């Protein structure tokens, strides 16, 4: 939105000059860290002046309005308060969601704030808390509906990497439309950043990079790296090339992960267990996954489950790796492997 020719205020968070009316709207969005100053009455730091000089209204207009849908009405300083306010707030979502506690398993009301400008999802333990409990980069998020796992028809699972470990957040809202709106808002911001990162790509090429459903989830039994440890029942999640396991489906952190690369690099999946393997578990339908680093041994309850897991493993291993997946593989030594039981 373009303010009058001689604005008297500025947003030193965005690098734009604004009128006094719009400054009040910007100031009242504290949860995204918006900072405004008077051009004549405020004290300006050197770095703030430098930031304003490097940006400005025309440059920021081009940046933030690059992918605004054509049907969006773009208000001016002459428009009514509600139009100007919603335009400035566009790209943020603020509301309460029920979140499962990491340690106690209880669902409690928590405030979540989604910001397109920052590219983050934040949550706060209290509505009026000044500092968020967590700040999650939206481009690292996967979001998938999990009503059966969470035990609520509107259950949503947020997954992201935290300190090189997979972190899960389980949410729901009593209103189905509300939780779907949160889901689609995350996807909208992801698409926005992808269009900036890949300006020549069309929507069809970018859509597969948005949130996705897991390829498969379910229980298997596993043993440790020496293949002499006892087999223990664990919950497994296959998220494309990442195979993660948990003691409980609603664990906040994965206990371990394995990367599944391409078959030409020494990755394979086959039925059965190596000769001489001592299988003390209750399930007898084995799977052996071979990687360049080691082999992983699993057992399934039924042959049907074994074949379904094998199909998914084989499908992943047969797909050529993308440059981004090669980068992900290089990070894999930093991520906990499937070593503990």
Automatic annotation (TrEMBL):
One of the record's GO cellular component terms: plasma membrane
Main location: cytoplasm
Keywords, in A-Z order: Cytoplasm, GTPase activation, Metal-binding, Repeat, Zinc, Zinc-finger
Transmembrane segments: none
SUPFAM superfamilies linked to this entry: ArfGap/RecO-like zinc finger, PH domain-like
InterPro entries to which the protein is assigned, alphabetical: Arf-GAP_dual-PH_domain (IPR052589), ARFGAP/RecO (IPR037278), ArfGAP_dom (IPR001164), ArfGAP_dom_sf (IPR038508), PH-like_dom_sf (IPR011993), PH1_ADAP (IPR037849), PH2_ADAP (IPR037851), PH_domain (IPR001849)
PANTHER family documented for this protein: ARF-GAP WITH DUAL PH DOMAIN-CONTAINING PROTEIN 1 (PTHR46021:SF3), ARF-GAP WITH DUAL PH DOMAIN-CONTAINING PROTEIN 1-LIKE PROTEIN (PTHR46021)
Designated name of the protein: ArfGAP with dual PH domains 1
């Amino acid at each position: 939105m373009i303010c009058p020719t001689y604005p008297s205020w500025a947003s030193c968070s965005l690098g734009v000059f604004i009128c006094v009316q719009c400054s009040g709207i910007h100031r009242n969005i504290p949860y995204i860290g918006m900072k405004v100053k008077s051009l004549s009455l405020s004290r300006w730091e050197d770095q703030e002046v430098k930031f304003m000089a490097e940006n400005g209204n025309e440059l920021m207009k081009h940046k933030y309005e690059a992918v605004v849908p054509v049907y969006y009405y773009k208000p001016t300083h002459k428009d009514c308060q509600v139009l100007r306010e919603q335009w400035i707030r566009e790209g943020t979502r603020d509301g309460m969601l029920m979140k499962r506690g990491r340690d106690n398993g209880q669902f409690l009301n928590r405030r979540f704030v989604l910001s397109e400008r920052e590219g983050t999802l934040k949550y706060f333990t209290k509505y009026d808390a000044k500092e968020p409990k967590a700040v999650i980069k939206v481009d690292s998020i996967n979001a998938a509906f999990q009503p059966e796992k969470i035990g609520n028809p509107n259950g949503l699972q947020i997954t992201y990497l935290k300190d090189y470990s997979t972190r899960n957040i389980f949410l729901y809202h009593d209103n189905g439309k509300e939780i779907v709106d949160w889901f689609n808002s995350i996807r909208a911001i992801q698409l926005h950043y992808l269009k900036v990162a890949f300006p020549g790509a069309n929507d069809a090429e970018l859509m597969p990079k948005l949130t996705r459903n897991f390829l498969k989830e379910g229980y298997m039994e596993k043993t440790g790296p020496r293949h002499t440890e006892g087999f223990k029942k664990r919950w497994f999640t296959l998220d494309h090339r990442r195979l993660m396991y948990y003691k409980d489906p609603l664990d906040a952190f994965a206990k371990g992960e394995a990367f599944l690369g391409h078959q030409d690099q020494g990755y394979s999946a086959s039925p059965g267990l190596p000769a001489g393997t001592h299988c003390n578990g209750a399930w007898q339908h084995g799977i052996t996954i071979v990687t360049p680093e080691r082999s992983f041994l699993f057992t399934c309850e039924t042959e049907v489950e074994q074949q379904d897991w094998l199909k998914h493993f084989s499908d992943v291993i047969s797909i050529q790796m993308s440059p981004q997946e090669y980068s992900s593989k290089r990070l894999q030594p930093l991520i906990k492997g499937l070593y503990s039981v």
